[in-house]
Amino acid sequence: MYQQMIFVNLAVADVDTSKKFFTELGYTINPQFSTDDCACVVISDTIVAMMLSKQRYADFTKKQIADSTKTSEVLLCLSAESREKVDELVDNAIAAGGSASGEPQDHGFMYGRSFDDPDGHSWEVMWMDPAAVQG
What we know:
9 strands, 4 helices, five-stranded mixed β-sheet, globular, single chain, four-stranded mixed β-sheet, alpha+beta, 24% helix
């Protein structure tokens, strides 16, 4: 069965810094689709983040590129398999050079925390009790 994928394209100040940051979080770089001005970060079988230098990103849009340290252009949210995995990923992101963003959100059946990567892109990590999803 076909599984649709998502390719998130983000403008970054330094591709090597992005590569280092995301590999420290446990993700891999696909060298087949990476160059000096682009890092293909494999998050899962169906999620890929393309970290493009601002110059390369500009090849795909006529719009002004947002300064993600000052403007929110997107909120990215990744699921986690447990509360502990939420904390682990966010703590690792902060240790790798990211920064905490906002307060933890604990609703009992759902738990989440957020971080900003070195370029200021906001990433949320959330866990939801599977029983709550089934309704």
